[in-house]
């Protein structure tokens, strides 16, 4: 039998790059030559590859093993970018504590921290909405590194996410005072925040400033923010003019621009102009995608034209663009709002056959629709199915269901609701108190004698829920 060739460090990097399964890649990294007792000399590239694969797959336990191995692999002097990636992966995984820990420990890996890893940490904390920790770090930044335009852009974004536009402007002004030239991203972040809060005059002033004073060319993100802001205020003609400006200045138009305009035209009752936009998309070689198709579906649902909305689903499938859960949720919501609960339930049941499975939003839409339509038995069954899948309606929706069940004097259905919640271990003291508060409303006492008797006789059930 021919002896197997040993895997070299260079060969390992090639194999890791080709390996699609992160579990197999992890195993390969740890044991590239299982029969060789000698320690393997991993390269910087192989560490980078395995960290990226595990991070994208959110295999954080395995990632920690690689990090520890890297810490003790004294032959390797890691580059800071590796730690920037690790911090980013922890941020996306909603693990801010881990991101902070990695940043603090960078020096123990024989690597110097710079503003790059600091910015990665700030952005990860932003993803995790750890605003207070971000503020603490930002105040102590001078001890760690010299802030750059990326640092300020992240801080501006954090202020916009919190809805504190005064803080966002202050950060922008501080950046200018320190002589740091704002980037397109910095301008775009603040413009987006202003547009989201309908401060369009200030947003357009900033656009003019970036073009005139800094000779910066607005990118698609800036234009999309402005177009969305105009459409939000029903200034559709101004939004279309801005789209024309993009064409003149050869800024690439993507599907987000057209989707925004399509939704706005439907909203103001100008559906006939939508087809002109679709023709323009074809001329500009901008393909219809899931975003634009969903905008069409939403528009038809606003018009209560559900046949056309279903027609878009069929068209998507015919053109190889698979409808996603949002496509179905939009139609189900529209049907529920129009009281077409049977059609909504049928589409809900048909989703798995169409290879798209309901998510928590789908269940909540249908549950709320059934409660509003006083189809309480069906709502109770959907609740039980939700709990089985690990989902839960909003507390206000549960309260509405319980309230209406009690109004109808249906004690059995009430206990079905309580038992469903208990099965999923979702019922806590707060939930139980909510139930009790509904039962003991003064204007309902005359209708709840039977229920109170049940509460007493089912004492053990109540205690188990608590």
UniProtKB/TrEMBL annotation:
Classification via PROSITE patterns: PPR (PS51375)
**Stored Pfam families:** PPR (PF01535), PPR_1 (PF12854), PPR_2 (PF13041)
The residues forming the signal peptide are none
Q: Whereabouts are the PPR repeats?
A: 148-182, 183-213, 219-253, 254-288, 289-323, 324-358, 359-393
Q: Which InterPro entries match?
A: PPR_P_subfamily (IPR050872), PPR_rpt (IPR002885), TPR-like_helical_dom_sf (IPR011990)
Name the keywords, alphabetized: Repeat
Keyword Electron transport recorded: no
Q: Which protein family is named in the record?
A: Belongs to the PPR family. P subfamily.
Q: What is this protein called?
A: Pentatricopeptide repeat-containing protein
Q: Which organism is it from?
A: Cinchona calisaya
């Amino acid at each position: 039998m021919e002896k197997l060739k040993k895997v070299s460090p260079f060969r390992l990097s090639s194999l890791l790059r080709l390996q699609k399964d992160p579990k197999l890649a992890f195993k390969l990294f740890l044991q590239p030559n299982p029969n060789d007792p000698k320690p393997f000399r991993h390269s910087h590239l192989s560490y980078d590859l395995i960290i990226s694969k595990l991070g994208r797959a959110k295999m954080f336990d395995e990632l920690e093993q690689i990090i520890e191995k890297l810490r003790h692999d004294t032959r390797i002097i890691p580059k800071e970018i590796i730690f920037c990636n690790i911090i980013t992966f922890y941020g996306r995984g909603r693990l801010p504590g881990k991101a902070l820990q990695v940043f603090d420990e960078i020096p123990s890996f024989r690597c110097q921290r710079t503003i790059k890893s600091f910015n990665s940490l700030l952005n990860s904390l932003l993803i995790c909405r750890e605003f207070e920790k971000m503020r603490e770090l930002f105040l102590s930044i001078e001890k760690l590194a010299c802030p750059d335009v990326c640092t300020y852009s992240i801080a501006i974004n954090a202020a916009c996410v919190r809805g504190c536009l005064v803080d966002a402007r202050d950060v922008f002004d501080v950046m200018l005072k320190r002589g740091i030239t704002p980037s397109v991203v910095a301008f775009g972040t603040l413009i987006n925040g202003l547009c989201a809060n309908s401060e369009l005059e200030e947003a357009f002033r900033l656009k003019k400033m970036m073009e005139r004073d800094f000779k910066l060319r607005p990118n698609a993100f800036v234009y999309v923010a402005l177009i969305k802001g105009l459409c939000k205020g029903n200034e559709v003609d101004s939004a279309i003019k801005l789209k024309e400006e993009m064409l003149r200045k050869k800024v690439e138009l993507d599907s987000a621009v057209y989707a925004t305009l399509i939704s706005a035209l439907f909203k103001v009752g100008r559906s006939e102009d939508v087809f002109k936009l679709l023709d323009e998309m074809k001329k500009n070689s901008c393909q219809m995608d899931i975003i634009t198709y969903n905008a069409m579906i939403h528009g038809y649902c606003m018009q209560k034209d559900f046949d056309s909305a279903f027609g878009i689903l069929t068209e998507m499938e015919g053109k190889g663009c698979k409808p996603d859960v949002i496509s179905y949720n939009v139609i189900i919501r529209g049907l529920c709002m129009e009281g077409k609960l049977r059609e909504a339930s049928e589409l809900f049941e048909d989703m798995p056959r169409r290879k798209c499975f309901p998510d928590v939003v789908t269940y909540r839409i249908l549950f709320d629709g059934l409660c509003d339509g006083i189809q309480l038995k069906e709502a109770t069954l959907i609740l039980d199915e939700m709990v089985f899948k690990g989902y839960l309606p909003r507390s206000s929706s549960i309260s509405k269901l319980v309230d209406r069940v009690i109004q109808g004097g249906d004690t059995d259905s009430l206990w079905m609701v309580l038992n469903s919640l208990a099965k999923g271990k979702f019922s806590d003291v707060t939930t139980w108190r909510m139930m009790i508060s509904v039962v003991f409303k003064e204007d309902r006492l005359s209708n709840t004698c039977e229920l109170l008797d049940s509460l007493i006789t089912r004492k053990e059930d109540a205690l188990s829920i608590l």
